Amino acid sequence: MKKIVVVSLLLACFSPLFYGQKTRPGQLPRAKSGVVYTIKVHISGIHLRNGCSAVSTGDSCRNLYADATIDGKKIELAGAEVTYPTFQRFNVVPGDYKARLLKDPHKVNGTELYREYELLLPDNVIWQCTVTGISE
Questions:
Q1: What H or E segment, with its residue span, contains residue 87?
Q2: Angle at alpha carbon of residue 101, lines to 100 and 106, rounded to 5°
Q3: Which of 87 and 125 is assigned the larger pLDDT?
Q4: Count helices and strands in the chain by DSSP H and E runs
Q5: Exposed e or buried b per residue across 16-30, where buried means at least 16 C-beta atoms within 10 angstroms of its C-beta
Q6: How confident is the model at residue 96 (pLDDT cuts 50, 70, 90)?
Q7: Mean pLDDT of 3-15
Q8: What pLDDT, in 10s, does the model give residues 19-57?
Q9: 57 in helix, strand or coil?
Q10: Can you tell me whether residue 85 is helix, strand or coil?
């Protein structure tokens, strides 16, 4: 009897540590409260391109690209692979957005390539994207 009580007590104490996934499959990540998005981004075009790892499983998959302007520089942003049902929930259209810089691997030479941003969409969903191109 004592073992059952001890095991039940331990499970009750440690069950919050075993909380499930932060983002369930098919669910888009949402912005956390208290996070500040200070960078202004203007998206002028959206592109979908074929080719991703889900093609082998038979899922319809596209990569989402956006032509954007950050600090007066025209760049191309590439997001993660997006399958068809999930894409319908993304609300990325041309317009102004707020973002924050997640990773800058080239702090020394100042190039924008491979910088990672987190773009805040109007419905409080975040789109993680990487700079994959620069233009004049």
A1: helix 84-87
A2: 165
A3: 125
A4: 2, 6
A5: eeeeeeeeeeeebee
A6: very high
A7: 62
A8: 444 444 556 678 888 889 999 999 999 887 776 554 455
A9: helix
A10: helix
